[in-house]
Amino acid sequence: MLLSFDPDDVRAAERPLLAAGVPLMDRAAFALAVHAGHVLRAVRGRVGGAHVVLLVGAGNNGGDALHAGARLARRGARVTALLAAPQVHAGGLAALTAAHGRTLRVGADGPDGDAPAGDGRAADASGGGRGGAVADLLASADVVLDGLLGIGARGGGVRGAGGELVDALARVRAAGGGPVVVAVDVPSGIGVADGTAAGAVVRADLTVTFGAAKPGLLLPPAAEAAGAVETVDIGLTLPARPAVARLETGDAADLWPVPGGSAQKYSRGVLGVVAGSGAYPGAAVLSVSGALGAGVGMVRYVGGAGPQVLAAHPEVVVGEGRVQAWVLGSGVAPDDETQRDRVRAALAHAVDHGEPAVADAGALDLLPERVPAHVVLTPHAGELATLLRARGDDVARADVEAAPLAHARRAHDLTGATVLLKGAVTVVVGPHGAVYAQGDAPAWLATAGAGDVLGGVLGAVLAGRSADAVADPTLPAALAALAALVHGRAAHAANPGGPVAASAVAAAVPGVVRALVGA
Ligand SMILES: NC(=O)C1=CN([C@@H]2O[C@H](COP(=O)(O)OP(=O)(O)OC[C@H]3O[C@@H](n4cnc5c(N)ncnc54)[C@H](OP(=O)(O)O)[C@@H]3O)[C@@H](O)[C@H]2O)[C@@H](O)CC1
Ligand SMILES: Nc1ncnc2c1ncn2[C@@H]1O[C@H](COP(=O)(O)OP(=O)(O)O)[C@@H](O)[C@H]1O
Ligand SMILES: [K+]
Description:
The protein has 519 residues and is of the alpha/beta class.
């Protein structure tokens, strides 16, 4: 499991080590220089003679970049530091200067008359004139180390001279080619704790993060700016509970309901599916496909799409009966009152009798005021905005997309449900601070019906672990993250690197599960 921690927890973990004189910045800068060296060898064959540009802000994040730059300069790299603040980390600056690195003060914060650092040159990053010199420098770099802002960032993008550097770097990259960008600790400008990415934000190819990952490296939309993430152990002891977790391959076997030798279909879990309608019978078929692919003991289908479901899956039992979990609402049209009544009844049963339930699409507006955490909502951003508006919040889809964690958390707080918010990175929020962010899927998965398959996979897992999911209110969040992981990997497996239809994703689920839980 990949665990991330809020800046406050990281600072608290650093404090005793710093007080004891442990050289944390040296450790961080050493690891950063090693990773930058790997990148330089990959793009130029060697560190000696390579051109490295440092973007340096006012804090310790800039100090990391300067110290790493000094190490690279000692190995023969040509290193230029662009100083975006009047005062930068003194020890780092001294180290770079001693290693014969060049420094250049940029932007309005460093007027021409200001006592400049290093070789005494000043430049304006905003474009034209000396701004052109900054652009040329960035364009000619092999690697840029982004040390503008780390965990001291207050969010909303990088402001001031650093923001101009971020924009200049973006222009260089948009023109094609450009340097490999390595973010120091986090891409500068992201919301480190909440994953927002408004304003001037560095787009990195690689982020070298210290002590532990930070939530913004896992959460959308900021996760996209981080590129690959390398975590460096600098000796911090962090709390037991992370801010945001991501399930990885090794976690699936512990969570998946693998049948024991004495299993029979009822003990493995029966899933009730109330999905599909005259307008959308395919949603019922896809939902059932996901559940069967995930290996549920049995599916009972309830609704008008019985003939289509049976034609695709003769193993399904059509009609009501006892179940251990539900999938509700996929493809249930707003004007199909008969099917909506069935969804209402199933939701009430799930709440009253302790049966886990997935509430998707057409079930979201039928949710009671409060539900237990074993009810899992699976909205996309538009549906989450609608749900929040129905409960009095003034929220548009774009607001949810800009801050998915905050809005998923709000929906959890308002309803009590576990909330799985679909997207390029799927965010899950449950009770007691359980938060997951899964980025397992290729963009090809953004295709009609894919969400119905996800609901079926999740329903199967909840049916298989029904009693556990009711007894431990944080488990539905872990199982929802697990379903997202399997679903995303199934999209890869169905056609690596290429397009997938939702039915092909469902067909790939059994193989993915075998690979994850097989002996
Ligand atoms: N502690 C240690 O020994 C270790 C720390 N380590 C490293 O230190 C990093 C944390 O360093 P840090 O605390 O100095 O904060 P950092 O992110 O560099 O910047 C703060 C400055 O930025 C400014 N600022 C804020 N928001 C802004 C914005 N939007 N736009 C523009 N400016 C903004 C802010 O201004 P202020 O808010 O005070 O006005 C302040 O001047 C950490 O990520 C890791 O890399 C490692 O070496 C391991 C050991
Ligand atoms: N850019 C993307 N990259 C990867 N996966 C995505 C992306 N956009 C959406 N998805 C995933 O695709 C699925 C789409 O589901 P949904 O929006 O409910 O579609 P439908 O209602 O047609 O089934 C979700 O699992 C979502 O997480
Ligand atoms: K940074």
